[in-house]
Amino acid sequence: MQLLRVAWALAGAALCCFVILLIHSRLLKEGQLAAGTCEIVMLDRDSSQPRRTIARQTARCACKKGQIAGTTRAMPACVDASIVRMKQWCEMVPCLEDEGCDLLINKSGWTCTQPGGRVKTTTAL
């Protein structure tokens, strides 16, 4: 009797998980992003100039209300829209953990400085 109860409980749990998975797959059609997430759709690198690499990245984001596409820890992410509106780029924590962030003088972007002195400059379009 006890074994039968356990079997029915496991079967019910499995059925519940299947139903949840089915509902989730119906809500997120192929090609749709979950709210608050981003994905890189294009990445282009140009190393034609000595000691300089120019990288252009295009991301697709499905941000929640009050958020906008930005960069966190060197990856595309949804960030608070006020950060972009006020051009306070370093508040979205765009650099890696061991890098320092500084605003460009004209607030058109930011720099990430690595401990060895290498500088990565990012400008927002």
From TrEMBL:
The keyword Signal applies. The chain crosses the membrane at residues 6-23. Keywords: Membrane, Signal, Transmembrane, Transmembrane helix. GO terms for cellular component: extracellular space. One of its GO terms (molecular function) is receptor ligand activity. GO terms for biological process: G protein-coupled receptor signaling pathway. InterPro entries: Chemokine-like_TAFA, TAFA-5. Pfam families: TAFA. Belongs to the TAFA family. This is TAFA chemokine like family member 5a. It comes from Hucho hucho (huchen). The lineage of its organism: Eukaryota, Metazoa, Chordata, Craniata, Vertebrata.
